[in-house]
Amino acid sequence: MNVRGRRRWLGSSSLLIVAVAAVVLMAAVTASAGAASAPAVPTGVKVAVAKGGKAVVTWKASAGAHGYVVFLAKPGSSVVKKLATVNGGQTVRFISGTLAPGKTYAFRVKAYKRGGGKMLLSAFSGAVSLKVPARIVVGKVADRVVLHGQTATFSVSAKGTSPAYQWYKNGARVDGATGSSYTTPATSHSENDGDRYFCKVSNIINSATTNSARLTVRPPGYSGIVADHTVARLANLNSISAARINRAKAKLKIAYWHTSHGSQIVTGMDGLAAWKGGCYQYSSTPGFLTDTWSTDLGDDNWSSLTDSYLKYHPSINVVIWSWCGQVSWKDQSAIAGYLSKMSALEAKYPKVTFVYMTGHLDGTGSKGNLHLRNQQIRAYCEQHNKVLFDFADIESYDPDGTCYLDRGGDDECNYLVSGAKVNWAQKWQAAHTKGVEWYQCDCAHSQPLNGNMKAYAAWYLWVQIAERGGG
To answer: CA-to-CA distance for 415 and 396, rounded, in angstroms?
Structure first.
């Protein structure tokens, strides 16, 4: 090869080398671009609870990120579970599904970038924790009975995180009534008797509404006594001191006529004495309570029997007669006759307190004849300041204040659920501790709990009679 040819070959080779070098350089640049680094770890991660118990996780955008992956982390552990992929580098928010109330959850976030057909992930962010608030669960609001001019206080117990309260009167919001209890202004018999109150309790998880509690306002000048479901509670019994009960036992000499249903008061008191002892023990015939299980208000001669008895037993200062099932079929005039005879006995024996009584439930509800006749008795007692043991009202309610009168409630404590009988007393007893929240006792035709409540109401009645001058 001559010199000119060698130079031509060298020139061509140099061009080839340059071209090859350029290709290699371009490949290196391309490879470098394809081997992009993972995005930065997300910062500023926060979590908050949203309505309904959902978690809202937020963070600051990572430069160059194409999206993020949100993980659920086990608190105090490195164990994680992928929840969701959030596409879009500027999308920095994730809302979870509903979480279990009362539990604690932790969340971590990774940023991702796509390159070379792969997803490049950052390291985990730090974990952020959230304790989901507990759900609101409300208790019962008790009915209240006050005298004309008095205030009434309604209260509710609520479980759950950060409860907010709002009271309602007859379905309308009460402005400013945002506490766990609400005290009414001074009441009026004509304007407020029969008002209904309930409370709506809520937090970010849920809301719960209580039962509707009734306000009873006695008329002006009322001086009667009513033992009904509002006093037939263990808590009410426990609020009466032993000294007050002992004074009532020392002052009163009670004569009580009844048959099987009426025996619930006595067997309830006997069971209470066996359970708690102490001041609840009493002397029977003759003594504090002369118990005559032989006849009841179904006997047409009950009034003359009472008259004869009192003539020969001048120490008796309280008289009480019970019905059996007769009120269910008595008409208005028959009940008026009962009321008239009681009034005549009161006039003849002014130093004796006569206790009126309603008839036991029969399952016919507020539209049945039994309820209408019981209402006749109640209205008379309220109008004339009488003393009433409201037998039917006591067994219309469970200790939590749930009313069964218009749910087919009867004397056995049954009520109807889709046409089938369910016993509310048995259910309540099963859900509460025997020997702590209720006690065993005989209770004819019914359940021990019914006898318990009759006993609580009876001791309230005896104390009230003694302290208001009866006997």
So the answer is: 10
Block residue for tokens 């490049």: 120
| Tokens 């490195």 found at | 78
Is residue 134 within 8 Å of residue 205, measured between CB atoms?
A: yes
Written as tens digits, the pLDDT of the chain (471 aa) is 554 444 454 344 444 343 444 434 444 433 444 456 899 999 999 999 999 899 999 999 998 899 999 999 877 767 789 999 999 988 899 999 999 999 999 999 999 999 888 889 999 999 999 999 999 999 999 999 999 999 999 999 999 999 999 999 999 999 999 999 999 999 999 999 999 999 999 999 999 999 999 999 999 988 899 999 999 999 999 999 999 999 999 999 999 999 999 999 999 999 999 999 999 999 887 789 999 999 999 999 999 999 999 999 999 999 999 999 999 999 999 999 999 999 999 999 999 999 999 999 999 999 999 999 999 999 999 999 999 999 999 999 999 999 999 999 999 999 999 999 999 999 999 999 999 999 999 999 999 999 999 999 999 999 999 998 755
For residue 355, the SS3 value is strand
